[in-house]
């Protein structure tokens, strides 16, 4: 099931952490996974809205979620009426995702992102959030994503910028302030500069449409709770920002089918 690339990843970064979470994916407040849940509350509706706006979405719209974990995004999109398939290398996480799928329609498959078990041009939308920074060969993953994506289809991503600020806030701050943060949860060398991701996507025939930064809301009471107790309040919030310094979300469109119109960037749409 695993490729040599995935075995290499396990030697570099602690991806086994997610395998051991069980239902704590959805319940723990004394764990960095609670911050991932809070971030997903901001990001998931934005992704669903852009699928509806730009992917000619219908109940037949097919979505592949690569590195789906316990289904934060997959289950949200399934609840929005899309036909969702989630893939991950953690069998335990997939079991949690299946149990948490209130629609009973999401499909979860144990699969390696370096070698996806799908035919070419199988999906209208592919997503990969909080995953690309966990692989040592993101360009190979992007190649597989593009292969599985239909021409004109959309690819949604979220990852961390590669600089000293993100290393401090994403790695060191979690280790200092959030309970039960394991070693090597993130590796700074695996973070990705936005310009690099854009260039890699272009090489795989995916044109960047929109990108935006994400950061915590600093003036909120849950920040004080986090700093003093090491736990994450259920009301902890993230917000959008123009700065891409720490983490960023966006989407690209696969080119190649002249019959499908190109999605305009927000800037070009405003100019029109």
The outline comes out as globular
Classified by CATH, the class is: Alpha Beta
Number of helices: 11
Can you say what the CATH homologous superfamily is? Vaccinia Virus protein VP39
Describe what you observe in this structure:
The chain is α/β, with parallel strands linked by helices. An eight-stranded mixed beta sheet has the order 3-2-1-4-5-8-6-7, sandwiched between helices. It is globular. It is built from eleven helices and eight strands. It has a single domain, classed as Vaccinia Virus protein VP39 (Rossmann fold, 3-Layer(aba) Sandwich), CATH 3.40.50.
List the helices and strands and how they pair.
Elements: H1 4-12, H2 16-19, H3 24-27, H4 33-54, E1 62-66, H5 72-79, E2 83-88, H6 91-100, E3 107-110, E4 123-129, H7 138-148, E5 149-160, H8 164-177, H9 194-203, E6 206-216, H10 221-229, E7 238-241, E8 247-254, H11 266-271
Parallel strand pairs: 1-2, 1-4, 2-3, 4-5
Antiparallel strand pairs: 5-8, 6-7, 6-8
Helix pairs in contact: 4-5
Please provide a brief summary of the model:
It contains 11 helices and 8 strands. The chain is of the alpha/beta class.
């Amino acid at each position: 099931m695993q490729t040599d690339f995935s075995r290499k990843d396990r030697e570099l970064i602690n991806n086994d952490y997610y395998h051991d979470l069980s239902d704590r994916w959805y319940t723990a407040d004394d764990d960095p996974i609670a911050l991932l849940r809070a971030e997903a509350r901001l990001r998931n509706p934005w992704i669903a809205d852009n699928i509806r706006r730009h992917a000619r979405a219908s109940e037949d719209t097919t979505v592949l979620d690569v590195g789906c974990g316990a289904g934060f995004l997959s289950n949200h999109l399934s609840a929005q009426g899309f036909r969702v398939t989630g893939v991950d290398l953690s069998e335990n996480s997939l079991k949690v995702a299946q149990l948490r799928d209130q629609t009973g329609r999401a499909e979860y498959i144990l699969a390696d992102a370096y070698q996806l078990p799908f035919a070419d041009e199988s999906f209208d939308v592919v997503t990969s959030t909080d995953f690309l920074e966990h692989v040592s060969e993101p360009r190979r993953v992007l190649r597989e994503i593009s292969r599985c994506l239909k021409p004109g289809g959309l690819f949604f991503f979220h990852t961390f910028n590669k600089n000293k600020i993100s290393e401090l806030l994403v790695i060191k701050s979690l280790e200092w302030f959030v309970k039960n943060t394991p070693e090597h949860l993130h590796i700074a060398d695996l973070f990705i500069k936005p310009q690099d991701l854009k260039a890699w996507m272009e090489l795989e025939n995916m044109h960047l449409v929109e990108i935006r930064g994400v950061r915590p809301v600093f003036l909120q009471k849950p920040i004080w709770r986090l700093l003093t107790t090491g736990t994450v309040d259920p009301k902890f919030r993230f917000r959008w920002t123009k700065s891409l310094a720490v983490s960023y979300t966006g989407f690209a469109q696969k080119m190649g089918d002249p019959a499908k119109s190109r999605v305009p960037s927000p800037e070009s749409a405003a100019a029109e």
